[in-house]
Design a protein that fits this description.
Structural class: mainly alpha
Number of domains: 1
CATH class: Mainly Alpha
Strand order of the largest sheet: 1-2
Helix content: 40-55%
Number of strands: 4
Order of helices and strands: HEHHEHEEH
Distance between the termini: 38 Å
Shape: globular
Length: about 120
């Protein structure tokens, strides 16, 4: 194997490991949200140690199983899903005791505050 190819393989391996680390930290952070509490995509990204990665949180939620996905909302408590998925999210949250103010979660009452440490 040539020297340049070995460097490229090492860089690719490092990228894969950092992506897997990011994913596992975000998954662990999502799992910390207790019943009757919610968090935003951005807050989860910050708590996992990746500020600015709110879209990655959404991507991971879309592709993962066995997560409390209903507890993740948009900024200001807005349900970002559409159609039947939005209705299901709201019903699941209401069954956990989450209160709404019009079309948004009452964030003052139900926002989960992560501790300062990383996930």
């Amino acid at each position: 194997m040539s020297y340049i190819l070995r460097i490229k393989v090492k860089k690719a391996d490092k990228t894969v490991r950092s992506t897997l680390d990011m994913q596992s930290r975000i998954l662990a952070t999502i799992r910390k949200i207790p019943r009757s509490k919610v968090s935003t995509y951005g807050a989860i990204a910050r708590a996992a140690g990746y500020p600015g990665a709110a879209r990655r949180v959404a991507w991971i939620l879309h592709r993962s199983f066995d997560l409390p996905w209903q507890r993740v909302v948009g900024a200001g408590g807005e349900i970002k899903l559409r159609g039947d998925s939005a209705i299901e999210q709201r019903l699941r949250l209401e069954s956990e005791g989450v209160a709404f103010r019009s079309r948004r979660v009452n964030m003052k009452q139900h926002e989960f505050k992560f501790s300062r440490g990383k996930a």
